[in-house]
């Protein structure tokens, strides 16, 4: 009986040691220590033993049960630890992986152009003025010498909310509003950048929404040569020192005399090429001396004050400077297009 018990113990412990799963160990527990297990079976035969042997075998049987129990317990613990370890291994985050690159933005080419022009004019003593995009008919047209039936209004058809309220077609109303604020006392030296709107069919060079920068200088004795000097400085700074400008007579209702301003072609340098349509010159903006009536309407005495004004399209400047061939590129938010201007 003693050998039987010891053999059972060794057999059970060997199986426990070999077990790789908790389920198997549980089965061993049931098999060896259960009520129908071999140890119980052996103890049933105790009646045949002599009274001296009984306590000895009984003690041995208890020791065997205890040894098997302990082996099961420590094995279960070992398997539990192994499982935790395995889980930790599987769920580790590898912090040494390189991160995803952060997308760095850059200024939109229109913003970059406005900033550059603003910086230049601030350097010339101008300050930046802004005004509302929803304007009254009065400030957008009438105060600029464009009465209700003026034919030049046709060139600037707008989006109307009511007969009197519209999306401004130019940044000039900011000039009118600023002149009013100064109550007939100069000097005024401002540039007005901002969005404007016109009822136009969109194509490569037209958009129903675009940006302008206008400038206004009103003071005692402002002359046409002052206008030319300022625009010359602007063209050289924006397009390059080697570029020159020329003034051509033109018409605007709010200036007299009025001029179109051209810059010498940067590709052929005046000889004529396809880019400048063989003229050697590229039109960049309109300008002129502020019309006496406009001064008067805004509270300035035209016998005392004179001034010049100019207006340019930001898109056109950007297109010329960066060689962009379609105005719609500015508004489509295509990252392949925008990424080219990161360093501008
Ligand atoms: Zn050319």
Outline the fold blueprint.
Elements: H1 2-18, H2 22-33, H3 38-44, H4 53-90, H5 109-123, E1 127-128, E2 134-136, H6 137-140, E3 165-167, H7 172-181, E4 188-197, E5 209-219, H8 224-239, E6 245-252, E7 255-264, E8 281-290, H9 292-297, E9 306-313, H10 314-322, H11 335-338
Parallel strand pairs: 1-4
Antiparallel strand pairs: 2-3, 4-5, 5-9, 6-7, 7-8, 8-9
Helix pairs in contact: 1-2, 1-4, 2-4, 5-10
The protein binds zinc ion.
Note down, in words, how this protein is organized:
40% of the residues lie in helices and 19% in strands. Strand 6 and strand 7 form a beta hairpin. The chain has two domains: 1-91; 109-339, 2-Layer Sandwich (BirA Bifunctional Protein, domain 2). The protein has a seven-stranded mixed sheet, with helices on both faces. It is of the alpha+beta class and 344 residues long. It binds zinc ion. Residues 265, 267-268, 272-273, 275-276, 280 line the site of zinc ion.
Distance from first to last alpha carbon: 97 Å
DSSP summary, beta strand count: 9
Tally the structural domains: 2
CATH superfamily of the largest domain: Bira Bifunctional Protein, Domain 2
> Biggest sheet, open or closed, and with what strands and sense?
7 strands, mixed
Give me the strand/helix succession: HHHHHEEHEHEEHEEEHEHH
Quote the beta fraction: 15-25%
Structural class: alpha+beta
Overall geometric form? rod-shaped
Query: What is the CATH fold-level name of the largest domain?
Result: BirA Bifunctional Protein, domain 2
User: What's the pLDDT, averaged over the residues?
Assistant: 89
Q: Could you name the ranges where pLDDT drops below 50 across 5 or more consecutive residues?
A: none
Radius of gyration: 46 Å
What is the CATH architecture term of the largest domain?
A: 2-Layer Sandwich
CATH class of the largest domain: Alpha Beta
């Amino acid at each position: 009986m003693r050998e039987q018990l010891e053999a059972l113990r060794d057999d059970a412990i060997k199986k426990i040691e070999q077990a790789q799963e908790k389920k198997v160990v549980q089965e061993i527990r049931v098999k060896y220590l259960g009520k129908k297990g071999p140890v119980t079976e052996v103890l049933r035969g105790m009646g045949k033993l002599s009274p001296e042997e009984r306590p000895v075998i009984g003690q041995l049987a208890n020791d065997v049960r205890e040894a098997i129990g302990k082996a099961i317990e420590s094995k279960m613990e070992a398997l539990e630890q192994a499982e935790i370890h395995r889980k930790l291994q599987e769920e580790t985050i590898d912090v040494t992986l390189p991160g995803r690159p952060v997308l760095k933005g850059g200024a939109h080419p229109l913003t970059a152009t406005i900033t550059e022009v603003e910086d230049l004019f601030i350097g010339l003593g101008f300050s930046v003025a802004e005004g509302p995009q929803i304007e009254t008919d009065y400030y957008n047209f009438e105060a600029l010498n464009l009465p209700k039936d003026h034919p030049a209004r046709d060139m600037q058809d707008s989006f109307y909310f009511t007969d009197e309220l519209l999306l401004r077609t130019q940044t000039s109303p900011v000039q009118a509003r600023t002149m009013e604020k100064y109550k007939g006392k100069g000097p005024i030296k401002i540039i007005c950048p901002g969005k404007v709107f016109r009822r136009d069919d969109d194509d490569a060079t037209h958009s129903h929404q675009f940006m302008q920068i206008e400038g206004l200088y009103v003071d005692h004795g402002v002359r046409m040569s002052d206008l030319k000097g300022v625009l010359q400085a602007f063209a050289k700074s924006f397009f390059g020192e080697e570029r020159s400008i020329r003034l051509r007579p033109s018409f605007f209702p709010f200036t007299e005399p009025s001029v179109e301003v051209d810059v010498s072609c940067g590709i052929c340098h005046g000889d004529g090429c396809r880019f400048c349509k063989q003229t050697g010159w590229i039109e960049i903006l309109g300008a002129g001396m502020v019309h006496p009536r406009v001064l008067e309407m805004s509270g300035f005495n035209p016998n005392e004050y004179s001034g010049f004004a100019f207006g340019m399209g930001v898109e056109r400047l950007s297109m010329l400077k960066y060689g962009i061939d379609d105005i719609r590129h500015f508004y489509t938010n295509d990252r392949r297009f925008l990424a080219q201007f990161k360093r501008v």
